[in-house]
Amino acid sequence: MSFIGQSTDRFSSAPWRDPEDDTLRLECGVFGVFGVRDAAAVAALGLHALQHRGQEACGIAAFDGQRFHTERHMGHVGDAFTGNDLVERLPGGMAIGHTRYSTAGGSGIRNVQPMFADLETGGVAIAHNGNLTNFLSLRERLVQEGAIFQSTSDSEVILHLIARSRKARIVDRFIDAVAQIEGGYALVAITNKKMIGVRDPLGIRPLVLGDLDGQPILASETCALDMIGARFVRDIEHGEMVIISDTGVKSLKPFSSLAARPCVFEYVYFARPDSVVNGRSVYDVRKRMGQRLAIETGVEADVVVPVPDSGVPAAIGYAQQSGLPFDLGIIRNHYVGRTFIQPTQGVRELGVRMKHSPNRAVLEGKRVVLIDDSIVRGTTSLKIVRMVREAGAKEVHLRSASPPIKWPDFYGIDMPEREQLLAANKSLEEMARFLEVDSLGFLSVDGLYQALEAGPRDPVTPQFTDHYFTGDYPTRLTDREVAEGRNEANDKQLSLLSA
């Protein structure tokens, strides 16, 4: 089995991130296509639809019946996978793709997925969305057993576990490997005969099955199916493995039966509003979140203004419930690329205007209800509040369409440690003073569950993964427990070359 590979950073270097930018980022999105002509081109289109899940890097691996071909690039899908020669570079009828923002392992081309390994049973390419909470523990054990790693990505751990399994069949090797990992993940892989999809036992990260002219598609979100004209078939169930081959789609449930706990932040922020996640329209959920927010935190005002773009559906719901007019008081610049390094505080303060500009005609002299999806450290929120006031707003009432974020995440969301989270360290009144607003309000956890039409939150077995609001983590945090037991820093770095 031969392999042709190409890894390059010719399109852009790893993105510089403003240290005061507190936007949440998800690790990645995955896509897979089986039995379709020019599969790489279809995968590239699917990745375009999933670009919001990761803008740092992207990759595609394809199989042409004899050889695997892969390209991995820093930068956006539209820059990397373009040109009339795409299907010549990545030929074949089976392909998987990945778009990435790094949370585990760091930036760098060697951490970009899909990752490939040539085993005695044939080649395997793999891509996954999420984080393994026992990644460092598994990696340490594998290194002690003689494994050699080429990256600092937890995806490579999965490849090593597959390679070291003593099972004869590749499907059994996957089961053997996935049974050893913990955390939240959705995984797609291709071998020389099959495409495999796996969703973690709690269903924390999403994965859906689609149909394109009778051929199966796997994707992180339904919006990727819409992009290529595929039909949504169903969600991959929590703890399910699907084996796709020329004989069809086979479903396995190789893990212990657990109650599903999908990530609630998919609805709050990450999923595209036109996606349907776990049977719920993301757009409808966000509107209901805004309606509940108006019921719980209503205030006398003149206009409801969203922080674009993620605050728009909730602001529409808030306006409908409150009877206040909805208007675009902030205009987003959709053509901002990589943020420039900003050497002085004065220039940094102006940086927010690269992405958001005040609409003075809407804001001047008005009592403004400003709706955002969430508040993390508060640094960006403060800049936006100041910008709205400078445009002439008489009052600014900030409302978050999610509950206060008080706990960090370890399942694929790039989130600060607890000491950096505004709501974890200040009271509501202290946060309002810090953000320089006339009032501040958050959606309650119960209100969020009502918006999800999930009934009251079950404190014993919650219906969703919601630890960022409640501190109730759905799995063991093995690496963190080990680090604390050794009295090591929680952000333990791997002793490898710079990623």
Automatic annotation (TrEMBL):
Active site: C28 (nucleophile)
Gene Ontology biological-process entries: 'de novo' IMP biosynthetic process; purine nucleobase biosynthetic process
Classification via PROSITE patterns: GATASE_TYPE_2
Family to which the UniProt record says this protein belongs: In the C-terminal section; belongs to the purine/pyrimidine phosphoribosyltransferase family.
E.C. numbers: 2.4.2.14
Pfam families per UniProt: GATase_7 (PF13537), Pribosyltran (PF00156)
Enzyme class: transferase
InterPro entries in the cross-refs: GATase_2_dom, Ntn_hydrolases_N, PRTase-like, PRTase_dom, PurF, PurF_N
Metabolic or biological pathway: Purine metabolism; IMP biosynthesis via de novo pathway; N(1)-(5-phospho-D-ribosyl)glycinamide from 5-phospho-alpha-D-ribose 1-diphosphate: step 1/2
Cofactor note: Binds 1 Mg(2+) ion per subunit.
Ranges of residues in domain Glutamine amidotransferase type-2: 28-247
Catalytic activity field: 5-phospho-beta-D-ribosylamine + L-glutamate + diphosphate = 5-phospho-alpha-D-ribose 1-diphosphate + L-glutamine + H2O
HAMAP family referenced in this protein's UniProt entry, alphabetically: PurF
Function according to Swiss-Prot or TrEMBL: Catalyzes the formation of phosphoribosylamine from phosphoribosylpyrophosphate (PRPP) and glutamine.
Keywords recorded for this protein, A-Z: Glutamine amidotransferase, Glycosyltransferase, Magnesium, Metal-binding, Purine biosynthesis, Transferase
Cofactors required: Mg(2+)
NCBIfam families per UniProt: purF (TIGR01134)
Name recorded for this polypeptide: Amidophosphoribosyltransferase
